[in-house]
Each structure stands twice: as structure tokens, then as C-alpha cells.
């Protein structure tokens, strides 16, 4: 099997990707406690860029202090974060990849002990995993956070990000608004659950112009009463109409963590069918993710028109030169599915990888 599809360049608006491999936003908890870039982050992203990945989405980056998902998450809610992020994006670009930024508000899927603020969400319903009851956002609070996303996107662009991703997956705040599982509102943000997200896209677009916007969504939440593909195909269409240039397909929420970070025994490319369903609904590039462990399989996803790009995380964490080694038919240091990179599931402070001790 060849690699002609996965190594084909792709133009999105004003950027040109050298290949179709994406390193998705990986919350390694390597930032400082107040959200600044560290040498460890520069090293990790620099090596993955040098290793041949086409698009690197750095993140996740919190747009509001009350939306920080963990203790050492990157933040982008103040102009003081621009200069260190400029260094990060410059390292990525210098080493051959296109730099991007993922923006997030964690909503109810964090803890006030981490944020220092009361949790907020579309409805005052606790996440069944985090178990802390949030406050239901009023319209003033909604507008504040929408403005935070727009301001953060402009900061990311000024710092050198060439694509902005809005995190609407996994049950975080935007995803929480999208889903009947977590949004029980009776106002316009409940009767039209896409409205919160489409207004953010429009606000971001007004700030960053032609810089491409990717919208990450859980195409199926795999929880009772949650979003399924028939819902998210319609949502994806709405997002594109609002200005999205890319749809990044994920799955799950905190209550279905096995779909957020599937193990290899769940099957190769476990969510490729979801990506194909979204691709059938929209006319913009689609990113497929989850259990894509080799470039031959990634190539087949693209050549079979299931997606336009493939997000490969853990394999590039285990071996930052995964892409170049695959092209050159060199031995790859394989991800063993040990899950130590998912530090939060085992009570660790940050990600690690026994296959990549220099991480």
C-alpha cells in the first residue's frame, strides 16, 4: 500500500499543508501554573514538527480563567501570553510544520479548585465524572465567553498561529451547549443548541479574517441522550455556514472516556465511519482521528474519501519522527497503549511516555 494520498499537500484558505498528517491538541499539562509556554513544550512540539507532521495544533489553550481544564494548561486570555506563544509557533514553523492553536473553555468538565472560579455551563447539571455543579450561564456570561474566544483567536493569530481550532468536542463548554445531554435550557440557546457555537465562529471570523477556522466536534457522544451522527451532520452544516473551514471529528465525552481516548483493542480507525458521515454532509476538509497508528492505514482513510486529514496523537508522542520514519521505511518506536500519556486517569501531574523518555 502506498502513501500518495497522505503525503499530498492541501491548501486551506491562505495556508498550504505539506501533507495530511495532523498532531491534534494534546493537553500534556506541561505549561506553567499560570498558563505560559515552557521549554518542555517547545521541545515536544519542535521535535514533532521536525519529524514531518504537516499541521500541529498546539493546545488546548484556555480562553477564560474559569474554563481552564487542568492545573498546567496553556492560557491565551491575556496579551501577556502572545510573546511566549510567538516563540512556540515559530519553533513549529521553523521545523517544517504549519502551526495552529486550539482554544477551549472547559465548562463543567473541570473543578473550581483548579480554576479558582465557580464552574459555568449551559445548564446547572454536574458532569457525572467531575461531579461539581456549575452555574447556568446567563446571556451576559455567554457574551463574555464568546468575546473571550474571539479575543483569544486574535491573540493566537498575532502570535503566529496559521489556523485556529475551536474545541466543541468532548462535552467541554461549546460541546455542552451543542448536546441535549447537557443543555436543558428553554431560551434561544436551548431551542437552537448550535447558536452558542455559530456566534463564536462569526465573532472569531470578524477578528481573524481569512485565517482558517477548524471546529472540533464529537460526532457521537456515546452517552444516553447525547449527540449521534444524524444530529452532528446537521450541526456540522450549520458550523460551515457560519464560517468554519475545517471540521475535526472526534467522539465521546468525559462520561464515555473510552471513545475520547480509545485503546487499540477497540479497533483500528474506530471513528472513521463518523468522519465519513460528516464528510458526506459538508464541503470543507474533514479531520479523522482515533486509533490511526500507521500511515498506510491513514492513507487508506484519505484515498477512500472518508476524510481529508488524519489526526495521529499517541504514535507521534511515542516517536516524534513517526512521519519521516514511515516515509523512509525506518523502524518506528511504537505506542504500546500503556496510557501513561493520559496522566489524569492515573492521578499523575503531567503526561509521560516510557517509549519517549525525552518527552
UniProtKB/TrEMBL annotation:
Leader sequence segment: none
Q: In this protein, which residues make up the domain named NADH:flavin oxidoreductase/NADH oxidase N-terminal?
A: 6-325
What would you give as a GO molecular function for this chain, any one?
FMN binding
Q: Which UniProt keywords apply?
A: Flavoprotein, Oxidoreductase
Q: Which InterPro entries match?
A: Aldolase_TIM, NADH_flavin_oxidoreductase, OxRdtase_FMN_N
According to the lineage, what is the superkingdom?
Archaea
Pfam families xrefs: Oxidored_FMN
Question: What is this protein called in UniProt?
Answer: NADH:flavin oxidoreductase
Amino acid at each position: 500500500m502506498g502513501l500518495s494520498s497522505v503525503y499530498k499537500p492541501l491548501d486551506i484558505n491562505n495556508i498550504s499543508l505539506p501533507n495530511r498528517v495532523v498532531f491534534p491538541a494534546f493537553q500534556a499539562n506541561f505549561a506553567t501554573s499560570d498558563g505560559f509556554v515552557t521549554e518542555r513544550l517547545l521541545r515536544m512540539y519542535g521535535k514533532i514538527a521536525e519529524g514531518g507532521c504537516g499541521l500541529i495544533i498546539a493546545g488546548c489553550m484556555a480562553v477564560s480563567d474559569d474554563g481552564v481544564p487542568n492545573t498546567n494548561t496553556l492560557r491565551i486570555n491575556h496579551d501577556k501570553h502572545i510573546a511566549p506563544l510567538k516563540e512556540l509557533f515559530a519553533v513549529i514553523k521553523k521545523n517544517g510544520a504549519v502551526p495552529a492553536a486550539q482554544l477551549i473553555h472547559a465548562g463543567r468538565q473541570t473543578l473550581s479548585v483548579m480554576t479558582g472560579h465557580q464552574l459555568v455551563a449551559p445548564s446547572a447539571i454536574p458532569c457525572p465524572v467531575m461531579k461539581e455543579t456549575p452555574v447556568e450561564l446567563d446571556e451576559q456570561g455567554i457574551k463574555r465567553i464568546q468575546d473571550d474566544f474571539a479575543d483569544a483567536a486574535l491573540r493566537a493569530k498575532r502570535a503566529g498561529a496559521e489556523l485556529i481550532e475551536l474545541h466543541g468536542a468532548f462535552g467541554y463548554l461549546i460541546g455542552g451547549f451543542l448536546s441535549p445531554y447537557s443543555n436543558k435550557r428553554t431560551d434561544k440557546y436551548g431551542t437552537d443548541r448550535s447558536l452558542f457555537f455559530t456566534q463564536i465562529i462569526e465573532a472569531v471570523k470578524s477578528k481573524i479574517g481569512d485565517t482558517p477556522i477548524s471546529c472540533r466536534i464529537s460526532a457521537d457522544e456515546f452517552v444516553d441522550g447525547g449527540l449521534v451522527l444524524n444530529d452532528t451532520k446537521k450541526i456540522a452544516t450549520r458550523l460551515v455556514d457560519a464560517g468554519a473551514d475545517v471540521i475535526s471529528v472526534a467522539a465521546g465525552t468525559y462520561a464515555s472516556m473510552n471513545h475520547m481516548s480509545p485503546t487499540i483493542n477497540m479497533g483500528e480507525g474506530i471513528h472513521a465511519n463518523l468522519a465519513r458521515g460528516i464528510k458526506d454532509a459538508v464541503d470543507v476538509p474533514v479531520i479523522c482521528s482515533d486509533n490511526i497508528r500507521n500511515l498506510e492505514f491513514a492513507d487508506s482513510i484519505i484515498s477512500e474519501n472518508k476524510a481529508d486529514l488524519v489526526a495521529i496523537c499517541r504514535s507521534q508522542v511515542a516517536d516524534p519522527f513517526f512521519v519521516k520514519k514511515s516515509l523512509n521505511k525506518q523502524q518506528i518506536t511504537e505506542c504500546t497503549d500503556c496510557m501513561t500519556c493520559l496522566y489524569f486517569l492515573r492521578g499523575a501531574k503531567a503526561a509521560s511516555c516510557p517509549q519517549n523518555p525525552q518527552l
